[in-house]
Every structure is written in C-alpha cells, then in structure tokens.
Design brief:
Elements (H helix, E strand, L loop, with lengths): L15 H17 L7 E4 L4 E4 L11 E4 L12 H14 L15 H13 L2 E5 L2 H13 L10 E5 L4 H4 L2 H5 L4 E4 L4 H10 L3 E6 L10 H11 L2 E5 L14 H5 L7 E6 L9 E5 L4 H10 L11 H13 L3 H20 L11 E5 L5 H10 L2 E2 L1 E3 L10 E5 L6 H13 L15
Parallel strand pairs: 3-12, 5-6, 5-7, 7-8, 8-9
Antiparallel strand pairs: 1-2, 2-3, 4-10, 9-10, 11-14, 13-14
Length: 426
C-alpha cells in the first residue's frame, strides 16, 4: 500500500491543538469544581438560582446568585418583554416562517427593523446572532463590496471577540489580513499611510471590560477614510440615550465608514442581533441581504423574539430605561467601593478580578460555595497568565448581594478597594 501524505496545518490564524490542548484542562477543572455544566432553575422575583441534581459535583438544591449574566438591565424577565413575545406569536400565528428573507418573508422582522432603525437613527438589519452577522459582513468588507469598492488591508484587534477572529481565514481568501496589538492606534495609522484602504475590526465594548478609543479612531477615519467595524454588544441598552451604546454615543463618524453590530441578547433582554448601518445605498443593502451568508438563510428571528424585541424597544423610548441604567451604574459604583479592578470608575458593567492560572478555579469554587457564581476566565478566553474571575453587574442586584460577593472575593484574594474618607473597610 502506498504511503499517504499527512497534512501539516499552517496555523496562520488559529491553532486548535493549542486552544483545546491548554484550554480543555481549565474547563475540566472548572467542571470538577462545579463551575461549568450547571443546570439550575431561576427563581423569578427572588434573584437566585437553584441547582438541580444533574451535576455530580454540585449538591442538588444549592442556591446561588448569578453574577455572570449579561442581562445588565434584567429586561429578559421584564413582564412587558415576556408578554410581547407571547402576543406576537398570537398575532402572526406562526413560530418560524422558514424561508430566505430575499424570497418571501412575513412582516414581523421588518417591523422590528423599522422600530430599531428609529431608535438608532439609522438603517437596521436584524440577524439571528451577532456572530452570524459578523460572519456575513466581514467577508463582504474584505472583498470591497461593503465599503468603497476597494479591497482593504483588514486589521483585526488582538483582543477582538472570537466571533470576529474566527472569520480571519475567510477574509484572508479575499484580501490581506493582519493582527495588531489591542487598540494600537500607531499601527493602524501607519497602515493607513501605506495602504489605499484599511478596515479595522474590534469590539466597541470589550467582553473583559472597557471601551474602544472611538474618538481617536474617528480622527483616523476623517484623515484616511479608515473603515471601522465595531461589535458593541456589551454596551447596547446599558449605555447612552435610548440605549444606543457606547460607539454611537461617542463617535462623530456615523456614516458608511462606521459599521456597528450589537446583540439583542444582553442588556436589550431579548434575542438576535442588529446591524446598524449609516449611508449605505439600497443596492448595497441588497448585496448584504443576498450574499451575507446566514443573514439570508432560513434562520430569521422567530416570531416571539421579534415580539419581545418590539416590547423592549418601546421600553427604550421611556424614562424606565434611564431608571434601569442609573440602578446599574449605582450597583457598579458599589462594587467598585468594595473590590479594586482595572475597570473601576467606568460605567462598563463587567469587572475582571485578577487571579493566577493556579488559583482561579479554586477561588471560583469558594465563591460559588458562598452562594455566588462568577465566571473563571482562562486561556484561550484571556492570554496565558492573566486568568481572573469575571463579574457582571446588573440593575436588579441588591446591595446585600453585592456586599456579600465583595466580601468573599476579598477573602479569596481580590484586592480590596481603598475605603472612602469616613468609611470603614470591608
């Protein structure tokens, strides 16, 4: 028998052997410590979850407060949002009209897109998920079909969410792709001086805390015509007037040079995603609809998700949203008064409590036993040697819960915040 060739990977843009080989050990430790694979019932109105008997390393009935939930305004359980999903299902009489939107669609998703478009003051295209939107849009940017017609040098931020980083190989079939250090403005400007067209791909609000330098990037957009693709999912609803997010609140460049994708699953409280587009022609929008991959497959938002989205959008037009945002910011400030993190002082709802690779799982286990769940993050979620506990703040958390979490975090190694003048230490 002839000896067959063995394929050697290039690993230009990803390395599953490394990702899984190192990361799986942390995930296995997390599961054995009861920090992964949890199944729990949510006690509506009580603010805690109760573990069931399916996890071999967790006692059935163990109660805990979830500090690792992205529903920053707790709209996912808002009565109007829940009822909106039910009402839409009754109104349209179908769960999921399964056909590509470029061929036939019921008016449900168009109704949501129009509502969100009014909210953002831009054209909105909805998608089943932000990752689906990203996988559809970035290759069109790479080929120049979304932009000014030129194939750009595509610069991916080193810390860009995996939903964006995973599209690098696809974009590399259309254009040149490089990776830069986190928000490396000098690198981006040097590329703009060298290349006729440059596109920068990054998070507008990072999943590990912090915002993009939107105003500095806008200067490069004005000077060189830089196109910036933002995923601003973590600030949607939680930030800005009517909850339009950090990027659209601060960027002075809201035209075809700025593309923003936001999930509707986090603070917005429903399901799906929105692509926010300014200045694009009807013809370009048709190209997105027809050639944006799963944006056009028979995977549209189902009817209850549309109805819930319409209800949430209405809440965004009222003073209730402002009240919820203020509660969230107050809870963030309380946490910052108890535990020091690099994100302290920001309105961003995520705090990363530094731990070592060797201590992060045990620390997370002790926090969970004390009645709180925070996510241990480790490679490849973060760089090796920068593990930590990710804390997510919400409007509905009580002062007692936040103080309780702060106390146990300090006990497991978090840096205690310096008390304000006249205040006692934790």
């Amino acid at each position: 028998m002839t000896e067959r060739e063995i394929i050697t990977p290039t690993n230009r843009f990803r390395n599953n052997d490394k990702l899984i080989g190192i990361g799986n050990a942390f995930w296995d430790m997390s599961e054995r410590s009861g920090l992964a694979g949890i199944v729990a019932d949510y006690e509506a109105g009580e603010g805690f979850l109760r573990a069931d008997a399916s996890h071999e390393y967790i006692d059935a009935g163990h109660e805990f407060v979830n500090f690792s939930c992205c529903s920053y305004l707790d709209l996912d359980s808002h009565p109007k949002v829940v009822e909106g999903g039910i009402e839409a299902l009754r109104r349209y009489g179908v769960l999921d009209h399964c056909i590509a939107r470029s061929r036939v669609q019921i008016p449900a998703m168009l109704e949501l897109e129009n509502s969100l478009g009014e909210l953002f003051g831009a054209h909105v295209v909805c998608s089943i998920a932000a990752s689906t939107a990203t996988f559809g849009l970035l290759p069109l940017i790479a080929s120049g079909h979304l932009g000014n017609g030129e194939r750009p040098l595509m610069i991916f931020d080193k810390n860009a969410h995996v939903s964006m980083a995973n599209v690098k190989p696809v974009c590399a079939d259309e254009t040149e792709v490089v990776t830069c250090r986190h928000h490396d403005l000098d690198f981006i400007e040097d590329a703009c001086k060298k290349y006729a067209r440059v596109a920068y791909v990054c998070d507008g609000s990072d999943s590990l805390g912090g915002y993009a330098p939107v105003e500095e990037l806008a200067e490069l957009q004005d000077r060189y015509g830089l196109l910036v693709y933002y995923d601003d999912s973590h600030s949607m609803s939680a930030y800005g007037e009517r909850g339009v997010g950090y990027v659209r609140t601060h960027s002075p460049v809201l035209d075809e040079r700025t593309i923003v994708v936001v999930t509707l699953n986090k603070a917005f409280g429903t399901s799906g995603a929105a692509i926010v587009l300014d200045g694009y022609s009807k013809e370009t929008l048709r190209v997105i609809e027809r050639f944006g991959g799963a944006l056009n497959y028979s995977q549209l938002l189902n009817t209850p998700a549309v109805g819930a989205g319409l209800a949430s959008a209405e809440i965004h037009r009222t003073d209730e949203l402002v009240t919820l945002q203020k509660r969230l910011y107050s809870n963030i400030a309380l946490f910052d008064s108890l535990v020091h993190t690099e994100q302290a002082g920001s309105t961003f709802p995520i705090r990363l409590v530094p731990m070592s690779d060797s201590t992060v799982i045990e620390a997370g286990r002790r926090v969970f036993e004390a009645g709180f769940y925070v996510s241990p993050v480790f490679f490849p979620i973060v760089a090796r040697g920068t593990a930590g506990l990710r804390v997510m703040m919400r409007a509905g958390q009580s002062e007692e819960q936040i103080r309780g979490l702060g106390k146990i975090l300090v006990e497991v190694g978090a840096e205690q915040a310096a008390p304000l003048p006249g205040e006692a230490a934790l």
